[in-house]
Each structure stands twice: as structure tokens, then as C-alpha cells.
Amino acid sequence: PSELFAVVFICGKQHKITTHDFLLVTQMADVDVFSCIQLEKVLLVGSVDWSLVGTPLLPRGMVKVRASVLEHKSMEPVIVFKKKKHNYKKTNIHRGLMTLLRIEDIFSE
User: Fold this and answer.
1) pTM listed for this prediction
2) Can you tell me the distance from the alpha carbon of 59 to that of 25, in angstroms, rounded to the nearest whole number?
3) Second label for 60, Cα 20 to 30 Å away, from 37, 67, 93, 99?
4) What whole-number distance in Å separates Cα of residue 60 and Cα of residue 77?
């Protein structure tokens, strides 16, 4: 069979994935590094020949997406500079916390 793809909803964003993809998402603090997780919110699954579209999600047992957590890391700093009035300047440095996932496999039943 041809390779499956899926659109999943992770941490408030939608991502199109296939098997063996690497995915950088906002930090998932409740999972451990090197653990295997199952992504439950699948919006769409398909291949070259067919596709299944949810309204808005597919039923929970229809599609299974397994992913492994590779690492938690912080991104490069983003410098935010604000200047409002004559003598007021403010500089903030923001580092986003991210989680790196590897999609192991996608099963459609």
C-alpha cells in the first residue's frame, strides 16, 4: 500500500505528518523523554488513492498515530525591544520551550 499521511491537532496547532517525520511542537511538559505517546486528535488521514475527513475529528479508534518523544529543548532567544516615550526603553528576551517528536507509524483501520 502507499504511504499514509495524517493531519493531527497538537498543542493548539494542526500538523500534516507522515511516517518517520520529525515534528517540533510547543512544549509537552507532561511526557518524558524517550517515551512513546499516541496522538488522539486526528482530523484527516489518507493516501494517494483515498482519504477520510473528520467532522471535525475522526472517531478515536479509527486511526492510531504513534510518536516518540526525542527531546525537550529551548529555542533561540527572541529579543523584543519596546520604546514608547521620551525616556522609556524596555528589552525582553523570550525563549520558547519546544518538544521534538518522531512519528513512528500511522495505522488506519
Assistant:
1) 0.80
2) 23
3) 99
4) 38
Bridge partners, 48 (sequence order): none
The reported pLDDT for the residue numbered 84 is 85
Residue in the structure block whose three cell numbers are 475527513: 53
Cell numbers standing for residue 100: 521534538
The per-residue pLDDT for 1 is 54
Contact yes or no for 45/58 (Cβ under 8 A): yes
39, 14 Cβ separation under 8 angstroms: no
DSSP state of 62: T
Sign, CA torsion 19/21/22/24: negative
Which residue type occupies 14?
A: Q
The 8-class DSSP code of residue 33 comes to T
Cell of 12: 493548539
Task: Give per-residue pLDDT as tens, 51-107.
Answer: 999 999 999 889 999 999 999 999 999 999 988 888 888 999 989 899 999 999 998
Longest alpha-carbon distance in the chain: 66
